[in-house]
Design a protein that fits this description.
Four Helix Bundle (Hemerythrin (Met), subunit A); about 325 residues; single chain; Tetracycline Repressor, domain 2; disordered N terminus; 2 domains
Length: about 325
């Protein structure tokens, strides 16, 4: 009987191939192929941490000198981060349908891709986890999370597409920062049963912040926006007036610090630190207004201003804590706003 070697493959080769297949299957089980894609997506959206920091800072401002509950603080911060991340992922998903090439078959292929599927399921999961975490803290925090999600849909959904409308893009982004701040405030109130007017002031600052950062970014994209027919603040009112608008907003933030001191009793150190931060704001805006055509300068200034916003939270927090400590030494109790 003639034996065909192709019917009986080499045993060693068969064992080697089987081993490789087993290792591949085991690797797929232990480290699914979508995980690197997910990490890549999250890494590309690192700036959403700003919303989490705003929530974290406002929570501490509301708590004042009270020792915060660590679990509630972490839960509120995580909820804010996840809902903000889900918002950006939803925006990415809607962009798939507005592809520059505008060909249906390409969009169809994109929707079948691993990245699209990972983004879709991650977005749904992040929204769900954020809302569940928020409601586990308090109803007010949960409602705030739902409002954030609603803003996300209104911002990017093809039927509303607020991001392409004049002023609305900046207003909605600022509203998102305001809601993120309110999430921190309501989470702290759930623990301390104390409402903080100064924390509410910090929420207003978070909103105003995006009327500085947003137009500054639009100035860098003004040429492309004009070609695309978009109406941004610099295009509508001009670059010079845009910088004047930003200066006015910084002055208004300084007024908020003054109100927090004279009306709501914030410690004078908080006022001094806040006005110092505002001075840095004004210096940076004035400096970049002379070099706004240099994109690297604009990018560097936006990063500096982003850190300055964190500094305003620290200034308010120190003002509240020092006020509480002074009152505690004088009267033996922490003040209730």
């Amino acid at each position: 009987m003639e034996i065909n070697v192709t019917d009986y493959p080499n045993k060693a080769i068969g064992e080697k191939g089987s081993t490789r297949s087993t290792k591949k299957e085991l690797s797929s089980l232990l480290f699914p192929h979508w995980i690197p894609v997910l990490f890549s997506i999250i890494k590309s959206r690192m700036l959403v941490y700003v919303f989490a920091v705003i929530t974290f800072g406002t929570f501490l401002i509301t708590a004042g000198a009270n020792i915060p509950d660590l679990f509630t603080l972490i839960a509120a911060t995580a909820a804010s981060y996840l809902v903000a991340l889900a918002t950006y992922l939803y925006n990415d998903l809607t962009d798939y349908t507005v592809d520059k090439i505008n060909q249906r078959e390409i969009i169809h292929d994109q929707k079948k891709s691993l990245q699209y599927q990972t983004t879709l399921y991650s977005m749904i999961g992040f929204f769900a986890i954020s809302i569940l975490l928020s409601f586990s803290i308090s109803i007010a925090t949960g409602v705030s999370s739902l409002i954030f999600a609603g803003l996300a849909i209104a911002y990017s959904h093809p039927r509303t597409h607020l991001k392409d409308r004049f002023i609305t893009k900046t207003v909605v982004t600022g509203a998102g920062a305001f809601v993120a701040s309110v999430m921190g405030m309501t989470a702290a109130v759930a623990e301390t049963d104390v409402f903080s007017n100064i924390a509410l002031m910090s929420s207003v600052i978070a909103f105003l912040f995006y009327f500085i950062l947003g137009p500054l970014g639009d100035i860098g994209d003004i040429r492309g926006d004009r070609q695309g027919g978009r109406k941004t603040i610099p295009i509508v009112i001009g670059i010079k007036r845009t910088f004047l608008l930003m200066d006015g907003i910084v002055v208004f933030i300084g007024v908020i610090f003054a109100v927090s001191y004279f009306v709501f009793g914030m410690h004078v150190i908080g006022l001094v630190l806040g006005l110092t931060v505002c001075s840095v704001f004004l210096f940076q805006i004035n400096d970049v207004s002379k070099h706004y055509k240099v994109k690297s300068k604009l990018k560097k200034t936006r990063t500096t201003l982003r850190y300055s916003v964190f500094a305003t939270l620290i200034a308010m927090w120190m003002g509240v804590v020092l006020r509480d400590i002074v009152v505690w030494f004088e009267y033996g109790v922490i003040p209730l706003e």
